[in-house]
Design goal:
The model has no long low-confidence stretch (mean pLDDT 94). The chain folds into two domains: 246 residues, no CATH class; 92 residues, Elongation Factor Tu (Ef-tu), domain 3, CATH 2.40.30. 24% of the residues lie in helices and 40% in strands. It is α+β, with helices and mostly antiparallel strands.
């Protein structure tokens, strides 16, 4: 039976923190017929020590395969760590031959034959990935991986004020890495937005690159002002960081959408620029971002996720935007406490990302939760 063992700790230096985690974990035992997998997330205060941390964990636990990332913030069940040295570890055992580490993909291209054959034979439909935000091909790599493997990917872009280190067997960077799971590993996953639509959808009837010129055949800024209301429309500087563009995803049965920043407003020409290339015929709506909207959507997501579980959750992974966590919910680990309140004491780890990955897309301002049953 697959089990998930959780440990997390903070301190002054990496070895002491690792020792605290191992003391919390206790002996790592792997029953016959199972293979262990370790997931580890490390705050960027310890980014330069990632190699030493990995070597220590591998030697002390006997677990050979590790996957993880550095983050400006990391999380565990009911707990967030920011601006302090900290490590969160989740160790599990899967049936033999049920996972494969994904070595770093720095550009789109043909998958290694052995990996592609394994994914086909084991009907791999799920993967956990971490990506380097400095790589300009990340969106294409993620989309291609999901398409070639027929897999649903979850994860995030590594965040750090120092080294952008990832772990996939060894310490790596500059691309996409992680782990693929066989199709018989039961998982459920869902996404929560930080934003809430404030008006109906509009059709983009004229645009150029990322600039909205007309919505529903009317000047884009005119429509925008009507949607945000008279108070904000009188002082457009107040919309920064509060109002965003939402691009609905075609054929989504959950009303999913991509949130993008407003990049600029041209009052004289009634234009709006957003942080995404758009085309005529697309739909768009505007949304507000605040803690109340984020918590309401998170509770909705957790409620829906619980309904989809066919067995109690044994472990979980959570990837959240850097703009969430203490920047949205406050300094008391409130975001992770909401998850704990709704799901109970499920062993869970993750990190706060520069962008969140769900399926084959890159999101912003979201929380992506995956549960193993």
């Amino acid at each position: 039976m697959t089990k998930f063992a959780l440990a997390h700790a903070t301190g002054t230096e990496w070895k002491t923190i690792c020792e605290q985690c191992l003391a919390e974990l206790g002996p790592v035992e792997t029953p016959g017929g199972l293979e262990p997998l370790g997931l580890v997330y490390i705050t960027d205060d310890l980014a330069g020590d990632t190699e030493d941390i990995l070597t220590f964990l591998r030697d002390e636990t006997g677990v050979a395969d590790w996957v993880g990332s550095v983050g400006m913030g990391i999380c565990a069940t009911g707990q967030e760590y920011f601006d302090q040295p900290a490590i969160a570890i989740l160790i599990t055992q899967f049936p033999q031959d049920s996972f494969r580490l994904l070595s770093t993909r720095k550009s789109p291209g043909i998958l290694p034959v052995t990996l592609a054959n394994w994914a086909q034979e084991r009907e791999s439909t799920f993967g956990v990935v971490h990506a380097d935000p400095r790589n300009g091909d990340i969106l294409e790599i993620i989309a291609e991986l999901a398409d070639r493997l027929g897999s649903f990917l979850v994860g995030g872009l590594t965040s750090s004020r120092g080294e952008l280190a990832q772990i996939s067997g060894d310490v790596t960077s500059a691309g996409v890495s992680g782990v693929l799971l066989a199709g018989d590993i039961p998982v459920v996953t869902a996404l929560s937005q930080s934003c809430m639509p404030i008006a109906e959808r509009h059709e983009i009837t004229a645009c150029e690159d990322n600039v909205l010129m007309e919505l529903d055949g009317r000047p884009a800024l005119e429509v925008f002002k009507e949607d945000i209301g008279e108070l904000l429309a009188r002082d457009l500087q107040r919309v920064a960081g509060y109002i965003f563009a939402a691009l609905p995803i075609a054929h989504s049965d959950t009303g999913d959408y991509l949130v993008r920043n407003l990049a600029g407003i041209d009052v004289e020409r009634n234009l709006i620029a957003i942080g995404e290339l758009v085309e005529t015929g697309q739909t768009i709506q505007f949304c507000r971002r605040d803690a109340e909207a984020a918590e309401a959507d998170m509770v909705r997501m957790l409620t829906d996720l619980k309904k989809r579980l066919d067995a109690p959750a044994k472990g979980g992974l959570y990837f959240s935007c850097l703009a969430r966590g203490p920047n949205m919910f406050g300094d008391a680990s409130q975001e992770l406490k909401i998850i704990e309140r709704e799901l109970g004491d499920v062993p869970l780890v993750g990190f706060f990302c520069n962008g969140e990955i769900s399926h084959h897309r890159l999101y912003t301002y979201t929380g992506v939760l995956t549960l193993f049953t």
